Amino acid sequence: MHRITRHQRFSKPLGRRLLLALASVGTLLAAVPTSAADAFPLRPITLILPFPAGGVSDVQLRALAASASKDLGQPIVVVNRPGNGGTLAPAAMARSAAPDGYTIALAVPTLLRYPHLGRVSYDPLQDFTYLIGLSGYSFGIVVRDDAPWKSLKDMLDDARARPGAIAYAAIGRGSSGHVAMERLARAAGVRLNFVPFKGTGEEANALLGGHIAMYSDPGWGAMLESGKVRVLATMGEARLKRWPRIPTLKESGYDIVVTSAIGLIGPRGMDRAVAARLHDAFRKAMEDPAYVRVMEQNDQVPEYLDSEAYTQSAAREFEREKAAMRELGITLE
């Protein structure tokens, strides 16, 4: 009789077990991401908002972050870090944040404008990854409801009679609201007194408290609805859908259009797959009804750009700002 050795007794079952084990390992490996980008995100994401809480940008970004976090499966924590007209926080991100997608920021036009106004600590075309273009602001020239001016013409006539006496606010020196008002003052031949603020919430409080005569920024819709303010003119190409009775600056005889496009950026050198993941999540969030409602309530205009188009747009805008700032002679001093 042929005797089965101990080795022979266990070789077949062992072979089967080994094959099954290897197959299981292979299945598990196939399910494991091949890189960190495939697993992104694994922890909460910080979204830096370079303006104070309570303003139009704060409301918009928090609604957007809440929607995008659902798709990403991780919280998006909005952190308010105002300063330098919205450039301080993105510049700090460029210097210190890892390009891993866990720290991103809102970019506003001053990021491309400030290098033409003075020394800055960043290169807007080299130090950032442009993720997605989001929207444009709806600017207006806002006064209290009891202001003595019923129209833009009334205000400008008063400004001619009292050079430098009328104080207006905008978010920081060199901001889009500041630039627009300086262009208007030059075109109308008047001199206004500029007072910089950190955010639209502070401007609104100063206006309603009687500390300034008017401001030039977005985010005034709720006050207009409640009858607290009047808007002498808006600054878009056409009248706003919600406020068809308010004329534009162009209609009033001044060739000035301001939309002030904003978007999301990260540090330079981000993994393309991570950047794409963020882009896709925020693009989807832009269609969320809750976010759309917030946009409509604040008269914000969607201006979507994908990452490539946003990068190209930033380069073009950088050159346009160079020419415009040279013409106006605005500096950061």
The overall number of domains is: 2
DSSP, total strands: 11
Mean pLDDT over the full residue set: 89
Helix content: 40-55%
The percent range for strand residues is 15-25%
Q: How would you classify the helix and strand content by structural class?
A: alpha/beta
- Can you say what the CATH homologous superfamily of the largest domain is? Bordetella uptake gene, domain 1
Order of helices and strands: HHEHEHEHEEHEHEHEHEEHHEH
- Strand arrangement, major sheet: 2-1-3-10-4-11
First-residue to last-residue Cα separation: 104 Å
The assigned CATH architecture of the largest domain is 3-Layer(aba) Sandwich
The poorly predicted ranges are 1-15, 17-34
CATH class bucket of the largest domain: Alpha Beta
Shape: globular
> In the CATH scheme, what's the topology name of the largest domain?
D-Maltodextrin-Binding Protein, domain 2
SS summary, helix count? 12
Radius of gyration based on Cα positions: 27 Å
Sheet of most strands: 6 strands, mixed
Short overview:
With 333 residues, the protein is α/β, with parallel strands linked by helices.
